[in-house]
Design goal:
The protein is mostly beta strands and 326 residues long. It has one domain. Helix content is 10%, strand content 35%. It is built from 4 helices and 20 strands. The chain has helices spanning 22-30, 209-215, 231-242, 307-311; strands spanning 10-11, 50-52, 62-67, 73-79, 82-87, 90-93, 101-105, 114-125, 136-146, 155-159, 163-168, 171-173, 175-179, 182-185, 189-193, 200-205, 258-263, 273-280, 283-287, 319-324. The strands form 4 sheets. Strands 2, 3, 4, 5, 6, 7, 8, 9, 10, 13 and 16 form an 11-stranded antiparallel β-sheet that branches. The relative contact order is 0.16.
Length: 326
């Protein structure tokens, strides 16, 4: 039985596994298992990679309170890729959210069962289509945890996304994106979209699936007057990143696998590479050679792509993935 791998391929420009600084490595050795972030390339990425802005519990964590930069209670609203807070002085967004704090409650922690996230900085993150115009809100978010190795000075600051040495096409691995538009499950499915998402929103690091889908415009949160995708297109992109070739079952990839693609709306720039697969909402329509797994280990039967299919792939699917050549 193939081993499911909950990871996605990095872009060719970031083909190596995420590097972690010595300080971050030491911090993660001792940090509470529920606070340690993931490697930034899984579907959720963080233990609280999804939260509910109304305070409902998600995977053992709930947003208990939002505090504005002055420490007053505020209301969080996430619309598309742009979070904002309602304060006594009105709405604040972007750089004006610096020092906003999010108080999370979880039964997994001792003491007061809380972890406090604080926005330390802000920058705009570009889409991959290279066009001028609105960008994605990116935040540098920190928290503190208890480190027994530094007793009695046990409170240690840490980046929510701790990968200082990662740079994914101009975006540092420490930057966080908060967005709302699609809900994801760990098995690479979109379980709700648009209004059906309700108050749920995603928190993702550079390299995680929600961030990738946003930056390539295959996300409900990234829609505008000139960029729109169907649910099937977004499902196809999610399956492509996670190598979910079959309609159900395993994800056949690992961290650091290089990947490029062409998409149906021609928002991507093809580069020299070897075709891998043509993708639909149900998985791979056809497959040349998988990027990581052995073909015989894939649980379902997938026909090999013909030359005619590859040359006219838009007649058969929503995206075509490729493996970069040396």
């Amino acid at each position: 039985m193939p081993r499911p791998l909950l990871a996605v391929a990095l872009l060719a420009a970031c083909a190596e596994s995420p590097a972690v600084s010595v300080e971050s490595q030491e911090a993660q050795i001792y940090c509470d298992q529920y606070l340690c972030t993931g490697n930034g390339t899984t579907i959720k990425g963080l233990p609280f990679g999804e939260l509910h802005q109304g305070g409902l519990e998600v995977a053992g964590f709930r947003l208990a309170q939002t505090l504005d930069p002055d420490g007053n209670v505020a209301t969080l609203d996430v619309t598309g890729p742009w979070p904002r807070i309602l304060t006594g002085d009105g709405w604040k967004s972007g750089i004006d959210m610096k020092h906003t704090r999010f108080v999370l409650e979880t039964p997994y922690l001792d003491e007061n069962h809380q972890v406090v996230l604080e926005i330390m900085d802000y920058e705009q993150i570009p889409y991959w289509d290279g066009l001028a115009g609105p960008r994605i809100a990116g935040f540098d978010i920190r928290y503190t945890y208890q480190d027994p190795a530094q007793w009695p000075n046990t409170t240690v600051p840490a980046n929510l996304c701790p990968y200082e040495e990662v740079d994914e096409t101009g975006v540092a691995g420490t930057w966080v994106i908060m967005s709302k538009g699609d809900r994801f499950s760990e098995d690479a499915s979109i379980i709700a979209t648009g209004a059906a998402v309700g108050g749920y929103f995603n928190i993702s690091c550079a390299g995680a699936v929600p961030a990738k889908l946003l930056r390539m415009r295959h996300a409900k949160a990234a829609e505008d007057g000139t960029h729109s995708t169907t649910l099937d297109q977004r499902k196809a992109a999610l399956r492509m990143f996670t190598a979910k070739y079959c309609k159900e079952g395993a994800l056949y990839t690992e961290t650091g696998q290089p990947l490029t693609w062409e998409d149906y709306p021609k928002w991507s720039t093809p580069i020299r590479s070897t075709p891998e697969a043509i993708w639909t909402a149900d998985g791979a329509k056809c497959l040349v050679e998988p990027r990581f797994a052995e073909r015989e280990d894939i649980a379902c039967r997938i026909d090999r792509c013909t030359t005619a299919e590859l040359e006219n792939w838009r007649k058969h699917g929503w995206l075509m993935s490729s493996i970069p050549t040396e």
